[in-house]
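Bit of a strange request maybe. I'm writing a small parser for structure token strings and I need a real example to test against, not something I typed by hand. Could someone generate the tokens for this chain?
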Amino acid sequence: MRSGIVLVGVLSVLLSAACDHDQRPTLVTPSTGPQAAPPPTTSVKLVEGVIESVSTPDTIVVAGTRVQVGSQAIIRRGSIGLMFADLSVGARSRVTGESDGTTLRATLVELLDQVGTPTQLHGVIGGVAGDGNTFQFKVGNQLIRGDNETQVFDGPRNALANSLRDGDTVDVDGLRRSEHVYARSVTVRPADSQGPAPPPSTGPAPAPAPQPPSPGPAPSPNPEPGPAPAPAPTPTPAPAPGPSSPVTIGGTIGALSGACPLIVFTLNGSAVVTDNSTTWNGGTCLSLAPGGSAEATGTRNGSTLVARQVTIK
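Reply from user aminoacidic:
Good idea to test on real output. This should exercise your parser:
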């Protein structure tokens, strides 16, 4: 009897230990594998400065910031759209985009300087169109665009872009870009123009040639005999001065004032003046800039050279 009680007690202890083992909490060992990196944070950023480098197909550096210009980015100068190929080192720009701390992905690139290769065109225009902010036309197959910075002239007079008409004959001073020529100035010329009129003479008026002395009184029919009078000497007339010879000066452009076509500037300290009869090579009167180089040929009027021709170097 006593041994049976002991056996029951042992069995109870064993069952209690088994239950405690089943209810013990299981320890979870933390994973030691690599953790997924959180997605990079981006922020809207604006950068303004000079374009320091251009790398095809879509990267520029502005003020030390690497900028990616994707196909969805808008590139423009004022109201006129541009292409990535129009971006050039040295041009000032303003870039808006999203930055991840390393690269700025541009949504808008605004050029603050005009860009393009200088070019001049002449011909009859067609396809004139405009929307108030920009205008465009064609000379032959070349598309030409302009905006409110474009200067328009009707001969020597200022004019408006909305005065341009199909069939006008024009001179265009422009900048060649990927898809168009940007017009810095448009000058309407008469259709029957045969070239500029010669410049007015600016030299001193020639002095009148001296007149020979008037003859003395006729001798009487029966003159008294006497010594014959000595003939009066005939003065030698002074030669009339001819027109001023052309003078050519060249050098660095200094002070500059006036408005096309009436410009006053200096070349190595000598004053030069232009008018609507001045012919231009290598540019127009709008191409003059202090610090540039030019050569002028014309006539002297005192210390000023009235330019018949100006060549922009």
